[in-house]
Input
Amino acid sequence: MRKIVVLTGAGMSAESGLKTFRDANGLWEGDDVMEVASTKCWYKNKELVLEFYNERRSQLLKVEPNNAHKLLVDLENKYNIQVVTQNVDDLHERAGSSNVLHLHGELFKVKSVSNDKLVYKWKKDLKIGDKAEDGNQLRPNIVWFGEAVPMLDKAIEITKKADILVIIGTSMQVYPAASLIHYIQPDTPVYFIDPKPNISQNNYNNLTIISEKASVGVEKLVKLLN
Output
């Protein structure tokens, strides 16, 4: 069974009603992203950071996977599908995807500020005073700006083994996630799905650009692969 590695970004979940991370010139529903997504900001204003992620968590509870998520699941009937996502939502899993790797963490998980191995499932509001079993404050299990991406090496190994690479709804400008495309084998077919594709046809030997939103683009992808 051929292996398809699917790299997904915010555009994958936009049709479910989740705002993309870089909407409105770096603002996310009025908040400056840099004020809520770094370790420095966490220690400067924990309440603001927690409020921001509590709102994101609450919003995620109200949305559902869209057709793009579901179509990827259908492809598992014919292909070995491995999803590597920059998204912190759980929509791939809820749609039924079997293999999902989260590069930037998961919104429905929290962890100890002192021990990355103490991770807990969490769907309610997170507050000051909520502690891990080591007695330390819990924080969102999100990779913030300036922090290492712990799952990057695993994502690289997955991408190296791709027979086909599919990229959906990402600007390919956020590093290190954007570097994954450089680890595919020469002549590996690449399908790039985005309404405003930011990729050059000249840089890849076997690139197909599908200039559509995720749901329409994945539907076209399925037809091409079948």
